[in-house]
Design brief:
The chain is α/β, with parallel strands linked by helices. The protein has 13 helices and 22 strands. Helix 3 (48-67) crosses helix 6 (178-189). The longest helix is centred in the N-terminal third of the chain and has 25 residues, at 81-105.
C-alpha cells in the first residue's frame, strides 16, 4: 500500500464514513476523509439528532397542560422558537466539533472540500490537488427529494426546517413517511395549523397497519388535517406573501410554509462514478454486494448512498463491517433481517421484525397478541389517547416474529424488546418474565 498516498480515502464524513475511517485508522491504516460541508452528516447536522431535540421541545406543550391535573399551577408560559432553534443549532456545533475531534484523535486527515474520483485509485479535491488511495469508500449519504412541480422553489425541506425565523401559522407537509409525521407533530405542538398531504391513502408504509391507523386517529383528534390521494399541481405566492397549494382531488390550501418530506435520494452527482465505472441500481443508488463493495474492486460504499436501509445505525454498522473486513482481518457482514426502527411522532411508534401482514404472507398462519390501553398518566391528565402494543408470533412455536408499538416512550422500550426478537424468543419467554409494575412496558409480558 506504500505506493499510494493513503490506504483508505473516504468521501463523506457522515455516520458511516466517520465510523469506517476511525476504525480503519485504529487498525493502522493511513486514512483521509473529504467532507464539503460539516463533519457528522445528515443525522448529526440536519437530521435525527436536532429533530429529536425539537421533539423534546414540542412535548412540553402537552406536558405543561397535563401538569395542571397533577397539581401544578402553571402560569405565564410562553414558547420562544428562536431560543430553542439557537440552542439546538449550538448543540449541533458541539457535535460537529466532537466528530471532527474523533477523526483527528485517530490521526485521520480531513479535507474540508469536495472530492471526485478521477481515475483508478485517484481522487481530485476541489482545490485541484490529487490524492491516491488503495481503497476508496463513498459515504456521501442522501438528500431530500423535491417534487418537480411549478413553484417547488417556494417550499422547504427538513434541511431548512431547523433554521426558520418563526413557526409558520399554517404549514402544508407533503409526504406520509417518518419525516412528514414527525414534523407534523412538532409543528402542531408549537401551535401551527398542520395539513399533511399524500399521494396515496396510507401513512408510514412498511409499518404495521394497526399502529398506522392508531397514529392517524390520534393525529386527527389532535387537529392535524390530512389530504389523501393528493398530488402537487403547483404552488403560487399570494399577494400577502403567503402560499397557495394546488393539488389533485382537493381544493387549494393557503399556507405560510410548504415542506417537502417526500423521500430522500442518494448523493451521487459529481462524484466521478461514470469515470470510475461504478454501477448504479434501479433506484439510482450505488450498487454494492453484501460486503459493501461496488463492481470496482477497490471502491466501496456504505450508508444512504447505497439505498439499502436509510437509517443511521445501519450506516454505522456498514462502516464498521467494512473496516473490520478490509483492514481488521475480520470478515463481517451486516444482518438486515431484524432491524428495529422508530418514528418520533406524537405519540411515537416503534417496531421490530415482521408486521402481521408480512408474517401471514410468509408463514401462512400466525398468532397475534395485543394490548390496547390508556397510559396511567393520561388517565389523571384526562387525556383519552390510548396506546397499542402488538406481538406477532409463529402459530406453532409461538416464536416472536415482530413487535409493534405506539405510545409514550415506545422507542425506549423497543430497544430491549428488539433483543428478544433478534434472539428468537417465544411468547412463553415473555409470559415467564415478571412484570415491572406499574409501567407501560409491563404490557409486553401481559399480552393476551
Amino acid at each position: 500500500m506504500a505506493d499510494y498516498d493513503y490506504d483508505l480515502f473516504t468521501i463523506g464524513a457522515g455516520s458511516g464514513g466517520v465510523r469506517a475511517s476511525r476504525v480503519a485508522a485504529a487498525y493502522g491504516a493511513r486514512v483521509a476523509v473529504a467532507e464539503e460541508y460539516r463533519v457528522g452528516g445528515t443525522c448529526v447536522i440536519r437530521g435525527c439528532v436536532p429533530k429529536k431535540m425539537l421533539v423534546y421541545g414540542a412535548h412540553f406543550a402537552e406536558d405543561l397542560e397535563d401538569a395542571k391535573h397533577f397539581g401544578w399551577d402553571i402560569q405565564h408560559c410562553k414558547f420562544d422558537w428562536v431560543k430553542l432553534r439557537d440552542n439546538v443549532l449550538n448543540d449541533v456545533d458541539r457535535l460537529n466539533g466532537l466528530y471532527t475531534q474523533t477523526l483527528e484523535n485517530n490521526k485521520v486527515e480531513i479535507f474540508q472540500e469536495r472530492a471526485t474520483i478521477t481515475g483508478p485509485h485517484e481522487i481530485t479535491l476541489a482545490s485541484g490537488e490529487k490524492k491516491t488511495a488503495k481503497y476508496i469508500l463513498i459515504a456521501t449519504g442522501a438528500r431530500p427529494h423535491v417534487p418537480e412541480c411549478p413553484g417547488h422553489e417556494l417550499g422547504i425541506t427538513s434541511n431548512e426546517a431547523f433554521h426558520l425565523d418563526a413557526i409558520p401559522k399554517r404549514i402544508v407537509i407533503a409526504g406520509a413517511g417518518y419525516i412528514a409525521n414527525e414534523f407534523a407533530g412538532i409543528f402542531h405542538q408549537f401551535g401551527a395549523q398542520v395539513t399533511l398531504m399524500n399521494r396515496s391513502d396510507q401513512l408510514l408504509r412498511g409499518y404495521d397497519e394497526s399502529v398506522r391507523d392508531r397514529l392517524l386517529q390520534i393525529s386527527m383528534t389532535k387537529g392535524i388535517q390530512f389530504r389523501f390521494h393528493a398530488n402537487f399541481q403547483k404552488i403560487e405566492k399570494n399577494e400577502d406573501g403567503s402560499l397557495k397549494v394546488f393539488m389533485s382531488g382537493h381544493d387549494p390550501i393557503d399556507a405560510d410554509c410548504v415542506m417537502f418530506a417526500t423521500g430522500r435520494v442518494p448523493n451521487i452527482e459529481g462524484l466521478g462514478l461514470d469515470t470510475a465505472g461504478v454501477e448504479l441500481n434501479d433506484t439510482g443508488a450505488i450498487a454494492v454486494d453484501e460486503n459493501s463493495r461496488t463492481n470496482i474492486d477497490h471502491i466501496y460504499a456504505v450508508g444512504d448512498v447505497t439505498g439499502r436501509v436509510q437509517l443511521t445505525p445501519v450506516a454505522i454498522r456498514e462502516g464498521q463491517a467494512f473496516a473490520d473486513s478490509v483492514f481488521g482481518g475480520k470478515p463481517t457482514t451486516v444482518d438486515y433481517s431484524c432491524i428495529p426502527s422508530a418514528v418520533f411522532s406524537h405519540p411515537p411508534i416503534a417496531a421490530v421484525g415482521l408486521t402481521e401482514a408480512e408474517a401471514t404472507q410468509k408463514y401462512g398462519s400466525v398468532k397475534v397478541y395485543q394490548s390496547d390501553f390508556r397510559p396511567m398518566k393520561n388517565v389523571v391528565a384526562h387525556r383519552s389517547e390510548r396506546s397499542l402494543y402488538k406481538m406477532v408470533c409463529e402459530a406453532t412455536t409461538e416464536r416472536v416474529l415482530g413487535i409493534h408499538m405506539i405510545g409514550p416512550d415506545a422507542p425506549e422500550i423497543m430497544q430491549a424488546a428488539a433483543v428478544c426478537v433478534r434472539a428468537g424468543l417465544t411468547k412463553a419467554d415473555f409470559d415467564a418474565t415478571v412484570a415491572i409494575h406499574p409501567t407501560m412496558s409491563e404490557e409486553l409480558v401481559l399480552l393476551k
